[in-house]
Amino acid sequence: MNSADVFIDGKWVRPSSGATLDTVAPSTGKKIGTIARGTAQDIDLAVQAARRAFEGPWGQMAAVDRGRLLSRLGQKILEHEDELTALEALDTGKALKLARNDVKAAARYFEFYGGAADKLHGETIPFLSGYQVMILREPRGVTGHIIPWNYPAQMFGRTLGPALAAGNAAVLKPAEEACLSCIRLTELAAEIGFPDGTINLVPGLGEEAGAALSSHDGIDLISFTGSPEVGVLIQKSAAENHVPCVLELGGKSPQIVFADADHTKAIETIVAALVQNTGQTCSAGSRVLIERSIYDDFMVQLTRRFKQLRTGAHDLDLDCGPVISKVQQERVLGFLERAEKDGVQIAAQGTVDPSSSADGYFVPPTLYRMVPRDHELALEEVFGPVLAAIPFDDEADAIRLANGTDYGLIAGVWTDSGARQMRLAKAIRAGQVYVNGYGAGGGIELPFGGFKKSGHGREKGFEALREFTVAKTVVFNHG
Ligand code: ADP
After folding, report:
1. Where in the chain is the domain with CATH 3.40.605.10?
2. 39 CA distance to ligand 1 centroid (A)?
């Protein structure tokens, strides 16, 4: 196998165009490898192979055996933890400790869904006398998966784990900016012995291989994680073929801090949840909403902590690494420049380690104070290490602010009042609400997904198995 191959029908082969793409290390801007530039033809072959697997040996395999294969892949990932960690950190620029966490999470997805494969069962429904009704949960068939560059290894497990556990055969199009771990994970999966065509991998450009997959009429479901703009394109092309979509499209998630909260604990978590993966996380808590009576005191502490943050190459293992690409660096710096022009004040900035390469894509972690509620820093997803602090007056105001963006992915509520915790949890329109905490180390077991522009459908946990299956009603008239 060559890293510039595609994996179709159990074989590593050159992409039909023979073309490749360079991939670079975000910490240095230097080329570290080549990947395939898959085409519509490769996607078509991959979809056909997946269909054969679904209608053949994979589709006929007992659930327990499917589960065993997935569990073995989880085990194999752990056996290659060091190697995958180094590869993921180099390719994405993320700190080694985070990459290690991601590799463990990838393994955990396959363990979780391996265990779940034979526990997914249907129902019976009481109906008219003389009838028996069964609801079968059947796999969708061939599933298409388009994933982003921020968590390639985790996303591999998050999207393929439930799809395969439910009995689907899959075609995966990873992101062109970072997919070396997905290539290696596919290679490990191939060694496990999944039937040919069960997993197909076609790296390539979004507008080529990605668009070909989302518009293919041979798929039964598309699962996409990425930007809202591309999410719209994908839904439109899938709609042409009446293909349903599960979409996870990012957020502008709030951390809501009331006066009675444990501030020290809140600050540690708020900072960690923002700088994780250098802010390039859909669920980053990128707004901190602070009760006005404690705003000044809280900001003093938050500022002190923020100034300690350090950014540097992935192998320095600091708080933040580089962002993924030059394009992303310019995009994030654009937010900083416009904020300066608009007079939004910086409360604190972290430092970029002096040893960092001038060609790496570094952005200092930045905390803004008193961000106006209608400013883009309060409303738009930056996807970088940028935190916007905004005061609120009372509980009703906090809820209004929390729900006042186009997004609704996750939220953190910091208060000691049990009744208020419950009121906020119910009032916030987000797929996950954390009380006195935020995020959960991958949260494999926890259903995850958006309201509003953050997308629809649910991933993770058993909810993902429901998305990757469809209910069939069978009615027996036995008289
Ligand atoms: P980001 O802004 O995080 O890079 P994108 O939405 O651009 O997110 O990319 C997420 C994934 O979607 C990547 O695998 C990318 O190649 C793919 N993609 C980008 N454009 C398209 C498109 N027009 N059709 C299908 N997939 C696309």
Report:
1. 6-249+455-477
2. 15
